[in-house]
Amino acid sequence: MPQKPKIATPDEAVSEIRPGDHIHLSSVASAPQCLINAMCRRGRAGDLRDIRIHHLHTEGPAPYADPEFEGIFQLDSFFVGPNVRKRTQEGFADYIPVFLGETQRLYREGHLPCDVVMIQVSPPDSKGRVSLGTSVDATRAAMEKARAVLAVINPHVPFTFGDAVIEADRIDCFVEDDTPLETVHFAKPTDIETAIGRHCAALIEDGATLQMGIGAIPNAVLDQLGGHKNLGIHTEMFADGVIPLVEKGVINGAEKAVDRGKMVATFLLGSKKLYDYTHLNDDVRMMDVGYTNDPFVIARNPKATAINSALQVDLTGQICADSLGAKMYSGVGGQIDFFYGASRSKGGKAILAMPSVTETGLSKISAVLLSGAGVVTTRAHAHWLVTEYGAVNLYGRSLQERARLIISIAHPSHREALDRAAFERFGPHYHFVGASR
Fold first, then answer.
1. CATH of 6-176, one of 3.40.1080.10, 3.40.30.10, 3.30.470.30, 3.40.50.2300
2. Which of the residues are catalytic?
3. For residue 55, what are the contacts with CB-CB under 8 A and spacing of at least 6?
């Protein structure tokens, strides 16, 4: 008979950590802060050394990335979140380039060790099972390889279904905490974001299965979908914006070929209302990231439509979404997972949506990418490009045709300079390209 997991204090639980260990943390809204703080106390006491920490991006404090822990903790994240961006750019933390869907493979195939897993879970149900709640990501894979699994039981963690459900006897040590999960409230879309949302919504067909990232533009798109029918969700994450569309019957998953009638994701981020909505909701499936982000699973749903954003796009359609020049800003994430999956789907669309300029007025469409910039999505993967000035389809277009199309949706104040750069790049024939053919 399995041994019943022990209940411990945070400081007792992190005594499982040994010098040189690799630690996986549950991500996004569900980072186990009480265990993180206890681990840092051990670090300050001089008990730990050469600890490697891995996670997707997390919300809330990430003290283990601070300079005071140099030589004690080394963060090698799968995605650079705002809370560790400065430390990563300074060199106190680092980033592992990896498709989000393959993060679980790093553990399962032994490319990355995992000794200790620290997570948050819901209280047990009547069958003795707990749930990973708002974030599954690569956690199940990490648990399969770990020496010790330390779990915070938190009543604020919703009991979600799918791969989130785990047997309590898979946990080696429980800690109790009732700190609310991290929440994010998104502001009302600006006029520019609303225009982008309107152009994206015009590309979304009834019966489409949607993937959208996080932030203002995805919410602006959702705001424009009230008149659509039979939409589905298969995504890496979703936020509050889906709830009104579910309540109206717009999102029902009726035409999905995979997980029909279910909303599928690997993590959630939003308000307490979102977390409460997913609690014991049989229409939501929280799945392993190897499933949600598998391009071949994504492609099985007809009209799979992926909407993502970028930091910069060049005139040939190369998309930089992970760095500002050579400085890491975020990560590869799931953009390629979903772009490739959507492009393989029958009637699918891969859409890159972004404002034409930065907050300081710099064009996000450039003649060439900044020196050192990462090409997350190649020009061969790029299909639809959307700004507040319209939508263009780059697929099947030559380099010169692409340049003309991309410039047509750049900010008007930058079009002349971009057109001149295209002329210098492609030569005098450039002006005779039939871009609207």
1. 3.40.1080.10
2. 236
3. 24, 25, 26, 27, 31, 77, 78
